[in-house]
Structures are given as C-alpha cells and as structure tokens.
Amino acid sequence: MKKLSEEEARKRIEELREQINYHNYRYYVLNDPIISDEEYDELMRELKELEAMFPHLITPDSPTQRVGAPPREEFGTVRHAMPMLSLEDARNPDELREFDRRIKRALGLPEDATIEYVAEPKYDGTSMEVVYENGRFTRAATRGDGVVGEDVTPNARTIKTLPLRLIATDRWPIPARIDVRGEVLMKKKDFEELNRERMERGEPLFANPRNAAAGSLRQLDPNITAQRKLDFVTWGVGLVEGVEFKTHWDVIDALKSYGFKTSFPVRLAKGIEEVIEYYLELQDKRDDFEYELDGIVVKVNSLELWERLGTTARSPRYAFAGKFKPRQKTTRLIDVVYQVGRTGIITPVAVLEPVEVGGVIVSRATLHNFDEVKRKGVMVGDYVLVQRAGDVIPEIVKPIPERRTGKEKPIEPPKRCPVCGAETVREGAYYKCVNIACPAKLKGMLRHMASRRALDIEGLGEKLSQLLVDRGLVKDPADLFYLKK
C-alpha cells in the first residue's frame, strides 16, 4: 500500500466504509451480493490496514467495529443473548500459522507450544440461532447484524433436521436454556432441482445454494419454506444455562447427543500443522461434499482459554476461518452481450468458451460495469482467468496479455440501447437506457411488480412477462390491471 497523507487516508477510509456498508446491506439484508467474498475481504483488509496506520480515524460506526448490517422490519426482530460474531480469515497455510502465533502470544506461551484445536468444515450457508428452553424449541433468529436478527421461528420449525425437542442422555442432561447456532443449508442436488423447477415456471434462478437457503428461510409464508429442502447443521452455542462444557469438543458431542446434525468431518488437531493438513485435505475434496464449502473453521478447544483470549468488537480471538482458494480456470472471451435491467442500467456480460469451474459449466461471466472493464483491461478475443469466487456468480479475474495475437477488440460502451435503440447516458460507472418505453425495462418492471416484495402476483414470471410485452398486450405496468381473459 502506498503511503498516504492523513487527508488522503481520511477520504479513502470514508470511501471504503461506504462501499462495505453497501455490500453488507446487499449480503446480509437483501441476500443479493453483487461482489465475491474475496473482493469484499480485500475491501475490509484495506480498511483495517488504513485504520491501523491512522488509529485516531477509527470511529464506532466503522465496519471494522461491528459485524454486519441491520435487519429489515418485515419480520419481528430478536436481540441475541450473546453476539454472533464474525471470524477473521486466513487464505493460506502461512496465514493459518500466523493466527496460531498470535494466539500463543496472547496466552504468553512459547512459540513451540502445542495448542489443541477443533477444525470443522466452513459451510457456505446462512447463519441462524435457535433457542431451547427446558429442551423445547422456542425461537429462531437469523444472524442479522450479529446483535439483532430477524425472527424466523415459524420458518425454522419446518426444517426437518432441526429437532423440536432435545434428547436427554446420562452424559448430557437437558439444559434449562441453550442457544444453538448453526448454518441453514441446501444440498447441491436439491439446489439444482429447485432451479430446474423455477426455470420451468419462468421464475428467476438462484445464483447458488447459499442464496437459495437464505431466500427460503426468509419467506414471509412458512409454507413456502416447508416446500424447500433445507437443513440445519450446528457449529456452536451461545448462552447456556444448566449444563457446563469444558471444551468445544464437548459442545459438538452434546449437540450430536441432543439430536442435531453437526459438521462432518470434524478433527481434533494437536497443533497448527494438523490443522493445515486438514485444511489442504478438505480443499482438495471440496467438490465431493453434499453442501458447498468455502473453507474451514478453527477453534481453540479449551473453553477456559476462550475466556482468557476474549473477543474484539467484531470477532473472537479464539477462532478463525481458513478460506479455500477460489476455483479458477482459463478460457477465451469470445463476445460481450449487454443486459438491460428494469432501471435501464446496461450490464456487460462476457460470453465465454464453455469451461468447467468447480463442477459447473461456465459460459458467461459478469463484467459488472464499464469502469471495471477498463480497470481490468479485458478485450474481446482475450484468454482470461475465470473464477467462481466465493462460489457465487462467475467473474473474470484478469486477461492473459501474453496470449494476445493482435486481433483482440476493445469492449466499448453501447451508444444505443441494445434492446430499443434509444441513446444511452452515463451515470457514474454505468450506462443507462432512458427510454421509458424500452421493452427490456418494461419486462423487468413487470417481474418486479409480480415479486413477493411488491404485489406478489402468482404465475407472472419471466416467460409470461416477456410474452405480454412482445405481443403488445402491456405497454405500461398499469396495463396489467386492465387485462382480460
């Protein structure tokens, strides 16, 4: 990072905070991320570095001092008895070793000391806390901003892998209260089946199993949630009354005993090198799992050491995540097409020679906007590196200039709308069609009107919206209300 003056740092910090807050809102509230996990992590890392260089610029409302974005008011809200913190992450074995060194320093241990860790898969789902009182399920809430979440109790009740009553054993009696935390997930095969059904009905497809799980859990109608094949896989607890655990391994054992589905495979590791062995093993086998994985979670096993290590405002000091490398492949960019959204924003989409990335055939990748195209220097005809970063929407990482032949063509912003031919105007990083009668905008508006967040019109999906506009039956959204059989 280049050296900045205090004023330059102040300006960049504010820019980063605005970007991160916006992406937190897209991710945590709308369940509709538009950047990959890796891109988000880079923004957060840059902000942390700048705040470390200029600590007097840290403010209480900085994203580094909190966990996420506040929930919407469509559901009731629930305050977690104990905050659901996020984890700091490592992206390679060396960074995993650095976390180990940091923990030893905090505990005053020599560098050659051996710490016992529990290593678990990091499932790519949506986090939820479930409260049990005297063994009975009483409430469920999303993670939300880590302090306050959305009450999804009726929806959670429909998840078959979530026990409504806990099972008592001699070893693990039922606590007076236990707040169980875990991940709401959808198996890859169930996600593919759901998207096939949505395609047949002309409904928008989910980008990945995580979005499908989050969208299913947050349905206003629990009957829709019940139709989706969701699982709840536990990874920890919050407040516990009436039972005492000494280790995280005890927690996992108790949760399994109580009737929960727990993470698998879990490893009790003697030192960081055994953790790294587990990390590399799961990274190689990630495509064999029934759920999407994006890394591992590593926790100090001793809960007494948890107390000694404590937490920051944002994350625990006794646990961290090891993120897997993004899935990447090289292919050729053969064309660029332009998509027009309901607001008129024109998005460039790369057409690729089909390539398999992480078990999925990728033939298109988002280019986000024309500033991004310019920044990356991508051209039609380029060989490009493609990744499913965070296993979300495929994107182009960079071109491979050394493979250019001289026949490549620059990607130019369209002067006219590719759908209606109207002139385009630039707004920031985007080009827009300003024709209010543009068929693409009209189709998008109809789909939006039909969505559950708007008028909730059953049966009005992508195919029917297209048919109504193409046949001239709807020339304005208001025409919907005058249609006759």
UniProtKB/TrEMBL annotation:
InterPro entries: DNA_ligase (IPR001679), DNA_ligase_CS (IPR033136), DNAligase_adenylation (IPR013839), DNAligase_N (IPR013840), NA-bd_OB-fold (IPR012340), NAD_DNA_ligase_OB (IPR004150), RuvA_2-like (IPR010994). GO terms for biological process: DNA repair; DNA replication. It comes from the Bacteria. Its EC number is 6.5.1.2. GO terms for cellular component: cytosol. Keywords: DNA damage, DNA repair, DNA replication, Ligase, Magnesium, Metal-binding, NAD, Zinc. Residues 8-454 form the NAD-dependent DNA ligase N-terminal domain. GO terms for molecular function: DNA ligase (NAD+) activity; metal ion binding. SMART domains: LIGANc (SM00532). Its cofactor is Mg(2+). It catalyses: NAD(+) + (deoxyribonucleotide)n-3'-hydroxyl + 5'-phospho-(deoxyribonucleotide)m = (deoxyribonucleotide)n+m + AMP + beta-nicotinamide D-nucleotide. SUPFAM superfamilies: DNA ligase/mRNA capping enzyme, catalytic domain, Nucleic acid-binding proteins, RuvA domain 2-like. The keyword Ion transport does not apply. PROSITE patterns: DNA_LIGASE_N2 (PS01056). Pfam families: DNA_ligase_aden, Nlig-Ia, OB_DNA_ligase. NCBIfam families: dnlj, PRK07956.1. Belongs to the NAD-dependent DNA ligase family. LigA subfamily. This is DNA ligase. It comes from candidate division WOR-3 bacterium.
